[in-house]
Amino acid sequence: MPPLFAPPTPPSDLETLSLERVRCDIAGGWTLYHAAEFENLLNALPGLITEARFAATVGDVDQRAAGQAALSKALQLGGHLAIRMGKTDLALSGPGASHSRR
């Protein structure tokens, strides 16, 4: 995963990228997670995070805030997957993990 503070590179399918599609893709990721389709999710997750990172950096303030909310859901999904796969050290050190250490 690239550094979270570096400007994200635009996804290869930028022409068709929309916040709604990013949200749908993330929802599809959660569907894979709940169906225990972990290999498929593991393959899809880097793209989901890349798209959400990009969505969090474009548009006006409200659009960026919506993109940041989508990014938080994508990263949360990654954390859940890491825990499910027994990689708790990775899940606890990842971005946004401080709220899950209760």
Strand content: under 5%
Termini separation (Å)? 26 Å
Query: Which parts are unreliable, with pLDDT below 50 for 5 consecutive residues or more?
Result: 98-102
The rough form would be described as globular
List the quaternary state of the chains. Answer: single chain
Number of E-type strands = 0
Helices and strands, in order, run as: HHHH
The main β sheet shows up as: none
Q: Cα-atom Rg, whole angstroms?
A: 13 Å
> Number of domains in the coordinates?
1
Quick rundown:
With 102 residues, the protein is an all-alpha fold. Helices cover 63% and strands 0% of the residues.
Description:
With about 100 residues, the chain is mainly α. The chain has helices at about 20-35, 40-55, 60-85, 90-95. The longest helix is centred in the C-terminal third of the chain and has 24 residues, at about 60-85.
